[in-house]
Amino acid sequence: MITKFLLPEDRIPTTWYNVLADLPKPVPPMLHPGTREPLTPADLAPLFPESLIAQEFSTEAEIDIPGAVIDVYRQWRPSPLVRAHRLERSLDTPARIYFKYEGVSPAGSHKPNTAVPQAYYNKQAGVEKLTTETGAGQWGSSLAMASAYFGLECEVFMVKVSHQQKPYRRALMETFGATVHASPSVLTDAGRAALAADPDASGSLGLAISEAVEAAVKSGGRAKYALGSVLNHVLTHQTVIGQEALLQMELAEDYPDIVIGAAGGGSNFGGLVLPFLREQLRGGRSVRALAVEPASCPTLTQGRYEYDFGDTAGLTPLTMMHTLGHDFVPPSIHAGGLRYHGMAPIISALKDLDLLEARAVPQTACFEAGVLFARNEGIVPAPESTHAVRAAIDEALACKESGEARTILFTLSGHGHFDMQAYTDYFAGKLKD
Amino acid sequence: MITKFLLPEDRIPTTWYNVLADLPKPVPPMLHPGTREPLTPADLAPLFPESLIAQEFSTEAEIDIPGAVIDVYRQWRPSPLVRAHRLERSLDTPARIYFKYEGVSPAGSHKPNTAVPQAYYNKQAGVEKLTTETGAGQWGSSLAMASAYFGLECEVFMVKVSHQQKPYRRALMETFGATVHASPSVLTDAGRAALAADPDASGSLGLAISEAVEAAVKSGGRAKYALGSVLNHVLTHQTVIGQEALLQMELAEDYPDIVIGAAGGGSNFGGLVLPFLREQLRGGRSVRALAVEPASCPTLTQGRYEYDFGDTAGLTPLTMMHTLGHDFVPPSIHAGGLRYHGMAPIISALKDLDLLEARAVPQTACFEAGVLFARNEGIVPAPESTHAVRAAIDEALACKESGEARTILFTLSGHGHFDMQAYTDYFAGKLKD
After folding, report:
1. B residues 173-192 closer than 8 Å to A (CB)
2. How many CB atoms lie within 10 A of CB B204?
3. In the sheet where A179-183 sits, what is the strand order?
4. Contact indicator for B321, B342 with CB cutoff of 8 Å
5. Domain holding B258: CATH number?
6. What HAMAP family does its record include (chains A, B) (predicted)?
7. Does a structural domain hold residue B274?
8. Residue B172 included in any domain
9. Is A175–B2 a contact, with Cβ atoms under 8 angstroms apart?
10. How confident is the model at residue A338 (pLDDT cuts 50, 70, 90)?
């Protein structure tokens, strides 16, 4: 009985996968927020180094992972693919449940997969400082860690409700040497405007992005901005998850009928799913791809597919995506990483092409699943990850009903060690759906 | 450049190592607290199942690991042995630094190595419930997890100062389904007596042990007690760490000149060190074994080697060990797992035999080392583990001074995700030495 399917370091993938090379029709281009003309690489130069901009516009299928990035990945990658034997027995299901566990990274989630290359490329370009936003703190702590590795300063705008709910995430970022501000802050025009409108504003990812972008643009070239999800290059970096999972399913002598991920901005979901969709798009085995989002922020299931801003203040390019509107402020649910009004253009296009399914689930059902998972598999999932756990359990229960022995694979994108207040609130009956 | 030395699941050791088989002279027996006669297995029957009592008295070198225990170990074992390349470069040392990372267990520390077999053997014996104490919460959460796996109830007496400082550790235990009380509590005679003497008592491990033992003894046979360190069988279970590390040092084509562990009760330290000492005791390579303890609870460096109780109330057997006195209440340092007045009899005997070195370090120096480690290796060490990090760094700096390329191996016994308040206090200058 094998439980975890491990690969040695020398099988860390040497390329990321860019799904733009294989899509049946192109993803609509981003538009300049001022001219509404298709965005050019030059338009992004104030925000990102050239190498990342090139990746953002690339339609090459394979993008080389730099050796210096692989050298950092070595510490925890390839991450384990684990067979959830005890959970299966507890559900009494004929399904086989596997999870790809990204919580083994030092920052505790999948986010370092892109934080490390982003820090590396910025360092190569002579950038001294990175600015960013963070919701639950997974992205901020990952970029803080990667910045420490490459000797960069790091300034994080943290959505105020998370800043209050998760002081230990903040402490983690500070341990890595980052500077952390609650957003909205008084440090930017966007933040001051939000505070003027509502001094008690709990913040949103969209607003924190506005602040971080503004801080980079006004740095006089010292600082660039780093985004933890949504953009093409971010999703591409995350495909290291699925690239490994394909090799590990081979080791397991199995193949998923369904691949599942929680979807906030789309990078965790895309990271697992895109390499499996490549196989399908190129004539290989097809797979059900299921994106799971919170019922309180139902971007893919209820948003409109149209051009919208990525941030609240309208500083970012316009992106064709599923969106609830850039001024949508989602309720203060504990899955802070899923509180985003939009969705990655790649994921949105796949949804539009009927290449994936989406499902919205209420948060109490997610925590119920998280507790069941913890009592069987030991790992307490991050609130974001409980969305994938919920869907995986529901699919396994459907298999029990139908008697089908399907293979279910999901990303457990992170652990919940910095989110225990959420579990405390769940047990106390304080969570609302 | 290899960073982590991994073993596949089928190389999880199948035996634990019992150093009592190889010691040059026997460890003095425990004494009955009433009669002061050498303890018999029957004396321990109210507390532990027969199988664990047999292990406690065994002098066999190899103890079989049950298959059901290995099946649980599979989820995270063999744990990685990691070469700290970035830390080495940052210190500019010729030393090679390796750490055996036990924080990959779902509970985040080495403690499940013994929690899982203890839960298993109790379940086999028909026990329905386990009682225990916990300091920082690493042990309590590990036993809570193991109890959930084997369908046992779990009741934890948590030292009050930790109960207050670490609410999220408590939430973790509750997520696993355990019941948690602050100790001293009003639930036991020992707790009530302590509260009568000082209503504001911050508690100690010794007192929490008294409470947990009392709760088991008065359960009418439903419950047994589980101890997370000190006892022979606990140290034996932890040797899975060193058994693996020996194989992994072979993979690395290297061998440690010095092995280092933090020492509270002694099980983390013994877990790594004992298999290396076996090689030495049997005529193989010798190794410096260094136990690191807090300056504020200097059991090995300043305690007396004499018979003493393991708990405050004098309910446990008398044990020949290094002790600060069973009524010693250490200051409320953040390394709660190291706040214990005594030391494992095996470790105490090794110290008496000059088979190991001991060193006491102040906590601010430990946190300084923890931050340096985090900024280079990403992992934020538990406060307990920073003691080993401090000593490893100091040994590496000594190598820089002398120009010697020694090999240093330490256990990073757990991560500090539930201890971020300690780092916050450290940065705020609030920690005292």
Report:
1. 174-177
2. 30
3. A179-183, A153-159, A129-134, A223-225
4. yes
5. 3.40.50.1100
6. Trp_synth_beta (MF_00133)
7. yes
8. no
9. no
10. confident
Cα distance between residue A129 and residue B292, in whole Å = 38
**What confidence tens digit (pLDDT) does each residue in A397-414 have?**
999 999 999 999 999 999
Interface of B with A in 21-80 (CB under 8 A): 71, 74-76
Question: In this structure, is residue B29 part of a structural domain?
Answer: no
Report how far residue B412's alpha carbon sits from residue B395's, in angstroms, rounded to the nearest whole number.
Answer: 16
A17 interface with B at CB cutoff 8 Å: no
Which residues of A fall within a CB distance of 8 Å from B415?
417
Residue A98 β-bridge partners = A83, A409
CB-based contact A265:A271 (threshold 8 Å): no
* pLDDT, averaged across chain B: 95
Q: Backbone phi, then psi, for B31, in 5-degree steps?
A: -115, 145
The answer to whether A420 contacts B175, with C-beta atoms less than 8 Å apart, is: yes
Handedness of CA B77, B72, B122, B418 (dihedral sign): positive
Q: What are residue A6's DSSP bridge partners? A: none
Question: How many contacts, defined by CB atoms under 8 Å, are there between A and B?
Answer: 130
ipTM of this complex prediction, to 2 decimal places:
0.95
DSSP track, A267-324: HHHHHHHHHHHHHHHTTS---EEEEEEETTS-HHHHSEEEEEESSSSS-SPEEEEEES
What is the per-residue pLDDT across B362-396, written as a single tens digit (0 to 9) for each?
999 999 999 999 999 999 999 999 999 999 999 99
Neighboring chain B residues of A149 at a CB cutoff of 8 Å: 86, 376, 378
pLDDT single digits (tens) B130-180: 999 998 899 999 999 999 999 999 999 999 988 988 889 999 999 999 999
- Which residues fall within 8 angstroms of residue B329, CB to CB, at 6 or more apart? B202, B204
- Domain containing B302 equals 4-10+66-108+234-427
Q: How far is B371 from chain A (nearest CA, A)?
A: 6
Q: What angle do CA A345, A31, A293 make, to 5 degrees?
A: 25
Question: What token pair was written down for B185?
Answer: 């509590």
Between the alpha carbon of residue A56 and those of residues A37, A73, A233, B15, B311, the distances in Å are: 17, 21, 5, 52, 62
How many structural domains is chain B composed of? 1
User: If DSSP states are collapsed to H, E and C, what string results for B287-352?
Assistant: CEEEEEEECCCCHHHHCEEEEEECCCCCCCCEEEEEECCCCCCCCCCCCHHHCCCCCCHHHHHHHH
Confidence (pLDDT) at A157: 98
Domain-located, residue B70: yes
Task: Report residue A141 as tokens.
Answer: 């702590």
Q: Give the pLDDT of residue A240.
A: 98
Determine the residue of chain B that is closest to A175 in CA distance: B371
Is the pLDDT reported for residue B333 higher than 80?
Answer: no
